[in-house]
């Protein structure tokens, strides 16, 4: 029986060099799609997460073929060379990335300190790339056309993709049978609750400013506007608002840590604030900036529908949740809901340095 199973696998397994190059392509795809998924919160982006899952499970099969083929070089110390340690490390990290991803989708509940399994999966996934590049320096072999062409090869890759799709569906089913509910992003719902205590305080990278003195704090509105504005708490707080009307919106917050919650957010529409500053017709983007230097840019028409929130669930925002002012950005992931806002800049183009800013903000 075992021999028959092995022979069946052999028929599906592509040639060694094709396996190696397929692993490289899928790892790069998983890394890129994983990074893109961090900012993909709209339901229209659901296909990105679907393909990420299928590619990951297909990668499991290819890594299995690879490990089986090289097992003797690892087990027999006489076959070790100067690159064996890096190769073993790559295998361990890759298996950890795949395993934690599968466990998360299957409904496994494990936390490592403040990290969920999803956080751990992301960390291992990002770590795979540099180790793989080191591995390639010594194990690189130019691909051959013969390894990829022909009807048999097409059937083999078709079978691998079918396996990935079926396995992806199976892990989703396992999670559902355990009662695990997930959005298309992979995030799980928090228990019902309202206000600041209903969801965790999380920060992107090192953002952790001291509490802000609202007596001296103000929001500046600048850039492509005819009337630059400086607005204090009295102009924005719904209990004191004088310049713009307040509004309450029920919006879902989906955090890249793997949870989501829907809350009632109260504040002023960013569009009303922009209108009060007379935006130029040439404006196309709006950059929202935190006191920490963290910032993100949004198309101006989308930004107009966002909320500059001072309250959540009828309570004033706590410091950890972004007081005195945070952005509420529907269909955007949590890290794009900028906290501790102190400025809004209207621009002709997207801020090209925002990705650097989100990595170094809070360290200054």
């Amino acid at each position: 029986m075992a021999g028959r199973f092995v022979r069946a696998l052999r028929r599906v397994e592509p040639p060694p060099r094709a396996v190696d190059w397929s692993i490289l392509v899928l790892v790069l795809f998983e890394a890129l799609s994983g990074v893109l998924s961090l900012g993909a919160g709209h339901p229209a982006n659901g296909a990105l997460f679907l393909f990420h899952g299928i590619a990951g499970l297909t990668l499991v099969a290819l890594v299995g073929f690879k490990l089986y083929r090289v097992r003797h070089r690892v087990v027999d110390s006489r076959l070790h060379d100067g690159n064996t340690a890096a190769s073993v490390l790559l295998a361990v990290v890759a298996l950890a990335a795949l395993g934690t991803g599968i466990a998360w989708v299957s409904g496994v509940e494990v936390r490592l300190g403040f990290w969920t399994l999803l956080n751990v999966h992301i960390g291992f996934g990002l770590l795979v790339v540099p180790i793989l590049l080191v591995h390639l320096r010594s194990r690189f072999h130019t691909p051959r056309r013969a390894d990829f062409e022909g009807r048999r090869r097409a059937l083999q890759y078709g079978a691998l993709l079918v396996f990935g799709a079926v396995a992806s569906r199976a892990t989703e089913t396992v999670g559902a049978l355990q009662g695990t509910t997930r959005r298309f992003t992979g995030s799980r719902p928090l228990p019902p609750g309202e206000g600041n205590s209903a969801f965790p305080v999380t920060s992107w990278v090192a953002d952790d400013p001291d509490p802000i003195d609202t007596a001296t704090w103000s929001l500046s509105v600048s850039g492509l506007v005819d009337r630059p504005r400086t607005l204090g708490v009295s102009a924005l707080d719904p209990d004191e608002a004088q310049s713009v009307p307040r509004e309450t919106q029920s919006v879902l917050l989906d955090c890249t840590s793997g949870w989501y919650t829907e809350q009632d957010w109260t504040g002023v529409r960013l569009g009303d604030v922009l209108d009060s500053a007379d935006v130029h017709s040439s404006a196309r983007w709006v950059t929202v900036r935190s006191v920490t230097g963290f910032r993100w840019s949004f198309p101006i028409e989308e930004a107009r529908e966002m909320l500059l929130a001072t309250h959540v669930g009828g309570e004033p925002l706590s410091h950890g949740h972004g007081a005195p002012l945070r952005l509420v950005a529907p269909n955007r992931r949590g890290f794009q809901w900028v906290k501790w806002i102190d400025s809004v800049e209207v621009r002709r183009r997207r801020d090209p340095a925002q990705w650097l800013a989100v990595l170094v903000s809070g360290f200054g």
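The chain has a mean pLDDT of 89. The first strand starts at residue 111 and ends at 112.
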